[in-house]
Automatic annotation (TrEMBL):
This is Sugar ABC transporter substrate-binding protein. PANTHER family: ARABINOSE-BINDING PROTEIN-RELATED (PTHR43649), DIACETYLCHITOBIOSE BINDING PROTEIN DASA (PTHR43649:SF12).
Length: 554
């Protein structure tokens, strides 16, 4: 159930208990309100019963899930596999799976989910586990040397140009489309995402967008409110809505305490992270750089000339430089893992941009102490936005410019073309991928620490989350921040072009020196632009222009 529909029920006279009770209450409400809610009055299906069952494993607030939990969830979600595969059908098949082990998530969960699949099908999976910073180099090495030593790959859509575009992946069979219910994906994850030259290659297991996480206790603190007012802070003390306000609050909070503990403002992640750290500068820049009248924000779509050294991006780089002295000591050496899983979950910092994983982890990760004091919104906006076509800053009549960063377009599972010559192995690989991308299993992943966030329309059913143990106000805020990011009319969409992580990695290395004071923001941005120009020429400018425009829907 989407947030809007849930709110409609409440306005019609339903309580949360009514919604959860189901058919009888809903029928009465629908009849009384004339709201046309007949579709909601059907009795709970076996599928909904399964979803309710797995969401109680282990139950929100009952400790972080274990491998035994992963295996139990995998076993309960195996019925879709049994409809397409006979018991023991893949006996003797061995598959190699390459993916992340970041924060003991990703592959760690996949192992547990697939153990009952292995037992039922007879196949065996061998694992290649990679740290986040090692992922891009390892994948690029396999591509460059033509040594694809894996049958199944966990990969993000930005890499599709490098992998699918080179014919390295197996085309999805129709039976897999049906098993995973592709129609349930949120709109921005549907084709062309997951496709190349019109062919479907990806089983989506994640939907990435950066949202804004903040400490509700900090922004409701009366002493801080008084100090803010007495110090001449602009406006009322509260959650920042723009990056200009984020900067002001971060500087204000230096040296302040809440409940006897040091409190800091925004948490930047300046340390290189295998290309993935560039997204965090992107989230600072998007409101400055992504104009509502322009689909592009990274490159000029007609020339591939980088925009990274225009005034918008330079402002974002300067923001980081200016904020670091007010952030925790040695923040310059913090990567995104540290900012989220060590600092924010551990109670350090009051504002964090991260993927949606932060929202589930604050409630279900054993290291979290902020589960009851975290709120969410889309990324902060900006009082003005840079117009790359006119070369001018503009203030919009509609107010601050917002441009949620749909960073990485989510993880997916891809089957490699090297299995295509062996029908048994090919079916086994696609069956494993389909199991991991199953509709019910995906809900559990969204609700618990997994490395993945909501990415299906069916993930926005608030009563399911509440029944699992989530607070209604908390989960409503969280899911709204996700949905509003995915569906925002000015979302900053990432290009699926060859070499995109080569661009990002080159930028990270230069940014590290810039943040360390070895060059100015403009000098660093100019150096990145020069490096990007060389990459574009190496890859092929004309083809990059063509693919960049296609990725933006131009």
């Amino acid at each position: 159930m989407k947030v809007s529909l849930y709110n409609q029920l409440v306005r019609a006279g339903a309580t949360r208990r009514d919604v959860l009770k189901g058919a009888a209450s809903m029928a009465a409400i629908a009849a009384a309100s004339g709201a046309g809610l007949g579709a909601l009055t059907r009795p709970a299906s076996a599928a909904s019963e399964l979803r309710a069952q797995i969401l109680q494993i282990p139950g929100v607030g009952k400790g972080q899930p274990t491998d035994a939990d992963f295996q139990q969830v995998g076993e309960l979600c195996l019925e879709a596999t049994k409809a397409n595969v006979k018991e023991g059908e893949f006996a003797g098949v061995q598959l190699t799976f390459m993916g992340l082990n970041n924060q003991n998530l990703h592959n760690v969960l996949f192992r547990g989910f697939l153990k009952p699949w292995e037992t039922y099908t007879g196949a065996k999976i061998n694992w290649i586990d990679l740290a986040q910073a090692d992922y891009n180099p390892r994948l690029q090495q396999a591509i460059a040397t033509n040594t694809i030593d894996f049958d199944i790959l966990e990969m993000g859509a930005p890499f599709e140009g490098d992998v699918c575009g080179k014919g390295l992946t197996s085309e999805m069979p129709d039976w897999v489309r049906a098993q995973i219910d592709m129609d349930d994906l949120v709109a921005y994850l549907k084709p062309p995402v997951g496709t190349w030259d019109g062919k479907q290659y990806r089983v989506t297991v994640d939907g990435d967008a950066h949202n804004f996480n903040y400490r509700t206790d900090v922004f409701a603190d009366a002493d801080l409110a008084k100090a803010w007012k007495d110090g001449g802070g602009g406006g009322e003390w509260g959650v920042p809505k723009t990056w200009q306000q984020v900067q002001a609050v971060t500087k204000f909070l230096k040296g302040k305490q809440v409940n006897g503990q040091d409190v800091f403002g925004y948490l930047d992640a300046p340390k290189p992270w295998g290309g993935f750290g560039f997204y965090f500068l992107g989230s600072r820049a998007s409101a400055y750089a992504k104009h509502p009248d322009d689909k592009a924000w990274l490159f000029d779509p007609d020339t591939m000339k980088p925009r990274i050294n225009n005034p918008a991006w330079v402002r974002a780089i300067q923001d980081v430089i200016d904020a670091l002295p007010s952030e925790p000591q040695d923040q310059i050496n913090a990567d995104p893992n540290q900012t989220c899983f060590s600092q924010f979950l551990g109670g350090t910092g009051s504002m964090l941009v991260w993927w949606g994983d932060a929202g589930s982890n604050v409630k279900t990760n054993d290291s979290s102490v902020v589960g009851d004091v975290t709120g969410f919104s889309i990324l902060p906006g900006s009082d003005d936005v840079y117009n790359s076509k006119t070369g001018q800053w503009e203030k919009l009549a509609s107010g601050p410019n917002h441009a949620p960063n749909c960073a990485y377009i989510g993880w997916g599972v891809y089957v490699m073309a090297r299995v295509d010559s062996d029908e048994k192995k090919k079916k086994a690989a696609w069956s494993a991928a389909a199991h991991l991308g199953g509709k019910d299993l995906s809900l559990w992943c969204a609700a618990y620490p997994s490395g993945f966030q909501p990415y299906r329309n069916s993930h926005f059913n608030i009563p399911e989350w509440v029944a699992a143990g989530y607070d209604e106000a908390f989960i409503s805020s969280y899911l709204k921040s996700e949905a509003d990011s995915y569906n925002h009319p000015n979302a900053a969409i990432e290009p699926r072009i060859p070499g995109i992580f080569q661009y990002y990695s080159a930028a990270e290395d230069i940014l590290a020196n810039t943040f360390a004071g070895k060059m100015t923001a403009q000098e660093g941005a100019d150096a990145i632009a020069a490096a990007w120009e060389k990459l574009t020429d190496q890859i092929g400018r004309e083809n990059q222009i063509k693919l960049y425009k296609a990725s933006l829907g131009m």
